[in-house]
Amino acid sequence: MTALPSSVFGQIDAIAEASALSDDASFSLPAAVIKHFEQHGIKTSEIETIIGPREDYIRAIESYGNLNSEQSDRASRLAHIVSLAEKVFGKTEKALLWMRMNNRQLGNKPPVEIIRREAGARFVEEALMRIAHGIAA
Q: Does the reported pTM lie above 0.85?
């Protein structure tokens, strides 16, 4: 068994990946991941932009339940992208700063605004890979 990454976002990403690769078709993350996002620098407004309105998941948080499948997909996408950005930039703070800045490669939008959809997340991932490999925009 491999050790979990040290970053909270990396840990959530690893858990989501393991769950997605299992035979269990009912993949869902614990709603507590929302609290971890908030405690580690993701703003409530960003969470709502990506995962959905707070009213839609607050009961799951309060009852220590799970996010629904769509919310889980979006939460795992957020964790994956932030984890990747942490690897590229070396620190959570720098990763989140980059996530919030307008980016020419992404239509002058901040990455945090376009990762709600899978296609947007792929573009953000490509932008991060370009940075990691020193490829100019």
A: yes
